[in-house]
Amino acid sequence: MERLLFRARALPALSAMPDHQLPALLAHSDPQPERVSPNVILFQRGERLCFWYLLLSGQVQLYLDNPQHPGGGTQLRLVCPGTFFGELRTRADATHCCSAKVVQTADFVRIELRHFVALYNKWAEQLQGCMVPMEELVAEVEQNVPGGDEKFGLGWPPKQIPREAEHLPKRRPPPEARQRRERHSPKHQTNGTQLFELGLNHSSIDNQILRAASQLREAISGTDTGPISGSELCKRLRALCAQWLPELRQPFSPLMLQGMCQTLLDRVLLVHVRTEHALFRDSSTARYRWLPSSRTAPMSPLDCPSTSSALLLLALIAADTLFQHILQKPPDDRTPEELELVFEELSHIRAFGHMSRSMKCGLARLICWECREHAGTVIFREGDPGQSWFVLLRGTLEAKAPGKRHSLLQEGDDFGKLALLSNCDRSQRQSTVTTAEDGCQLLSVDATEFNRLLCEMETSTVRLKEYLEPEGTEESDVNDNDMALDVLVLQRDAGGRHWLIAGLPSKILEYTLETRIDHLAEMCGQPTVGTSSSGQADSLLQDVLLSLPLWMPSNKVCNMLKLYYCFGTSNSVEPGPTVDDLREWTRTTSTATKRRTVAFVRAWQATAGHRFFLDSVANAFVEELFSCVLEDARTAEDAAEGRHLEEMVRQMEALMELREKSMQRLSRLPRTVLDKGMYAEDAPAPEPVLPCDLCNQTVHCTSGNSVRSVTLQLRMDKSAAEIAQMAITAWQAVQHSVHRPSHLDGDSQQQNGGRTFAEKAEEKTGEVAGVDELVLVEMRPGEGEAAMRQFETNECSVPTMVAQMDANQLFVARKSELYRLIPPAEPPLPSARPQCLLLGPTRMAKAMALHHFKLLAATSDSELLVQVVGRDHFPPALAPSNLDLLLRRFHLVQCWTGTELLLAPPQHRLAVLQALIELAEHAFQQKDLLSLFAITLGLSHLPVARLHSLWAQLPNICRHRHFRSQFLLAPARNHRNYRLLAQQLRPPFVPFVPVILKELSFVHGGRNSCFGDGLINFEKMHLIAQVLRSFRLAKGEQCHGEAGEATPLGSAIARLAMGQARTDETLIRNLHAVEDQRRLMRVSLAVHPQGHRPIPSISDIRCDQITSDQPWRNGMAE
Fold it and tell me: Which are the contacts of 903, defined by CB distance < 8 A and separation ≥ 6?
């Protein structure tokens, strides 16, 4: 940088510039000048606007292209050394208004656009003599302003640039220049997005922020154009959020309000009156002013939806702005609130997923944020000393190593780990890493600081050991250090509290009983889980209870609780105790152990809800514990002990009363949940589905060339093997002829002749077809492996796992005959009468929200754990039937969206599209995020997204609404926008369950549950409990899992059901949809047969790449 400043100051045009201005201008520029050969085109008219340029040597020609004479054009000006040239427009969709070509070998540096414009607003008068705004040159020429030749040295009419003669040799641009031109060319951007599916990203994030800024300016300042202090701006913004966002769980924190203002300040929508401070200050002395409204596009009237969405959009982007600015601060200047925000962000980055909580808290103090503006920038070269460890936060990098293939690093990848190994010969870089695109963001950790952090972590780790003496070994021959085993590993955080890292299952349970139970507060007769004696949030007890099924079965839990209740320890006592010994144990054991056991059982039941009593072991243990407490209270010798035991008796009586009520609910008559794949009218929701509930399911039995169908009433706890046996037994009980199957290939139609299914199989193979040889499969229309799904023999609740489609069928076949199965024929297309127009978006959104809230109320958080871990690891009574119904509903709404639009009459198709977008908007207002994202994904499927003529007719307000839905669904940073939204919404709301399952699968699959020495990896349990806790918070459950009318979820259901017509819920309960995307594509091609251009998918595109420069913007320009 010093050499660059020395060279720039040597230029005559820049010699008179003040000393502090030139370093500020070059602070966000290339570190070294770039040399470009003659005849190389720097940029062309219409390409994306990204930089300002400072010419250090040579000459650059600015000109306008002549479409009638390729290679010729109108010259605007020859730029000489010491001149800044560029444009002052900062919109993301801004493009160059002219072209630039190197005339003489030129050295120049590029300056980030927003940085230069921000400084220009401050030093406009000083920079006028050494800068060339290109838009002013074009305006002079196009408007034919007199006097332009005297001002710019141009003759009038403008001189024509002669085309190059064909016989002259053409110089090929350097590879770096060609790559840069290709990256910024519209053609390159179009080709890079041809494989994406999801679309309609017609508006960029910056444009949306411009609209939000305009709305906020009118709401905050009105017609007042004067400056406003930072504290007053935050105060008005807080009042605006309280007025327009009443559904927030809690008001925005002061840090979040500062982040929202900082977002406007970074984008030069809000500027300091003297442009002295780059960071926003919540102070009465710091005064700011809004940028003139001419920079923003025309806005819609300020109404409730637009204002609330503007505030929500700004809050989501403000979190990322805060994250970047916090990491640019020195470590000692970061406040505890800022460190907590950084810790939350690091927890969802893949590179930090395997680290402990204490390690991530330490990294929040040390980690730094870096940005590489230009593609081709070298991060480090091969042979450089390793001094930092990097994590790619955004963008793509290219790693080149000698003798190896080049590899690409994507978002979330880390590199440079060898730098963390101190005193290692391999600490030198083994490859060269460069940026593959512009705007790459990195997180860096200094190797020295990281090693120091490791030492601090080891110092703060507490290991509780247990010394064992092997049998047959003399005490003098035993080395205590060799026989010491870790039974509990704790880590002390910065606040002095100990965080459980690992331990034996019995010791974890005993540690929880000893340290967390005594300080449980009583609230409404239920223990409030997660409060320690210091009053600070402590989630250890809730983490233990939520993850308990994963690391300890209920029978072992009950046995250890028995030991702790009787003897004050979770370890088994020595064998053969006498009656006097047991009496002495009982007399010396404190009443606290009994009280802790009772409190733990009550907290366990409160967390598990009704599923606690589905476990026969836990159910019997409650009765046994009640008997023990009654007996101890009757034989109490001390008055104080008797009072404590009487209190425990009252608590156990309340638990037994709750048990009786739950058993009455669990022993109700079976109800039909599904009737041949359709959701039954008498389904129990919002009550949970029980193992005794039934499903009427048609099963097709196959043998050879025969297919026989039988309708069975299946209990939810029946496994796939039992269903196969029931199907065979049903056909052994009846005898009738076999019809020619339509799903198998073979000869002419055959008759059974009165033989049973098993007898015919015995004649074919010489042995009876047993259950082990039969499999249960689901057949779908289509081809290949996707058309067949085979169930495991021990999988339960099979009917709820089958998609709610008419064509999907269940088959029982032998493994040797699976290849003979043919997918079922496609059913007729549903009716072309759009349901969304029949009911209207408002009524339909309310009916769908009511139905989804009922399904959510029936779903327990433990079902998420069963779904991810595997159904074969849990009893059949704990099968996730309710979760299956919720997921199949999401899949149904997603497929129904595309079916509804494509099958609508042509004259109604645009109205259906508008109604679907409005339906998603109303779903968001009803806090039904499941419907919101299901409709958004359905509209983003390729059969719908390719209808460009239909999307081009969509009004702008509908486009903005659909863009907001896509922005919330963006998968960048582990669905960061959705997570921030879920944290801010006031419960209850229907969460986006697929994202929760994805995060839970990532935690479960990325970490081992146990270490080699038998210790439970409780860091994994903490993360699993955190995901499950987010699901409970969405339901509004804090301390218990019941879904009655007294809970917030029950109140929401009652509110939605008030005034709701029963016919509305009946109409939306079973939507008609086509699941096969290939069939929908055929319908789409019939609707719009022209060549289609796929629209990018937000599942593959980052938020910062959603710009209006996409190939469909011309047909949908605002």
Answer: 829, 830, 831, 832, 1083
**CATH class for the region spanning 672-736+772-820:** alpha beta
Question: Domain 341-461 maps to which CATH number in 2.60.120.10, 3.30.2350.10, 3.40.50.720, 3.20.20.30?
Answer: 2.60.120.10
CB neighbour class for 793 (10 Å; exposed up to 12, middle 13-18, buried from 19): middle
Residue recorded with tokens 């950790």: 445
Q: Which of 204, 181, 185, 206 is nearest to 46 (CA)?
A: 185
Reference 260, options 1030, 980, 820, 963; nearest CA is 980
CATH 3.10.20.90 domain extents, the chain = 672-736+772-820
pLDDT digits (tens, 9 = 90+) for 445-467: 988 888 888 888 888 888 888 76
Q: Of 663 and 479, which is predicted with more confidence?
A: 663
Residue 117 predicted with pLDDT over 60: yes
Q: In CATH, what number does 1-129 get?
A: 2.60.120.10
Strand 694-703 to 672-675 pairing: parallel
Residue 1113: is its pLDDT beyond 60? no
Other Cβ atoms within 10 Å of 902 Cβ, number:
25
Least confident of 124-133, 726-735, 932-941: 726-735
Class (C level, CATH) for 835-1006+1059-1087: mainly alpha
* pLDDT tops 70 at residue 799: yes
What is the identity of the amino acid at 251?
P
In the structure, what pLDDT confidence band is assigned to residue 63 with cuts at 50, 70 and 90? confident
CB 1032 within 8 A of CB 545: no
Closest alpha carbon to 532 in 502, 568, 496: 496
What single string gives the DSSP state of each residue in 478-524?
Answer: --HHHHEEEEEEEEE-TTS-EEEEEE-HHHHHHHHHHHTSTTPEEET
Torsion over CA: 568, 571, 574, 579 (sign): positive
CA–CA separation, 639 and 828 (whole Å): 78
If pLDDT is split at 50, 70 and 90, which confidence band does 92 have?
A: confident
Look up residue 631 and give its two tokens: 């007996």
Question: Is residue 840 left, alpha or beta, with left meaning phi > 0 and alpha meaning psi from -120 to 50?
Answer: left
The neighbouring-strand residues paired with 957 are none
Q: Phi, psi (5° rounding) for residue 489?
A: -125, 120
State how beta strands 432-435 and 397-400 pair.
Answer: antiparallel
Domain with CATH 1.10.840.10 in the chain: 835-1006+1059-1087
- pLDDT in the model for residue 770: 44
Distance of CA 780 to the CA centre of its chain: 30
Measured distance CA(540)–CA(1025) in Å, rounded: 9
Paired tokens of 900: 């509804």
Report how far residue 590's alpha carbon sits from residue 602's, in angstroms, rounded to the nearest whole number: 20
Q: State how far Cα 996 lies from the chain centre.
A: 8
Q: Is-contact 629 645, C-beta < 8 A?
A: yes
- Cα–Cα distance, 527 to 603 (Å, whole number): 6
Region 1030-1051: mean pLDDT is: 70
Mean pLDDT computed over 869-873: 87
**Backbone torsions φ then ψ of 1058, nearest 5 degrees:** -70, 120
Phi, psi of 824 (to 5 degrees): -65, 160
pLDDT at residue 586, rounded to an integer? 55
Give the CA count within 13 Å in the CB-facing half-sphere of 744. 23
Sign of CA dihedral 318, 324, 325, 330: positive
Q: List pLDDT tens digits, range 614-643.
A: 888 998 999 999 999 998 888 877 787 888
What average pLDDT does this structure show over 708-719? 88
The CATH topology of domain 202-328 is Arc Repressor Mutant, subunit A (1.10.10)
Q: What is the pLDDT of residue 302?
A: 36
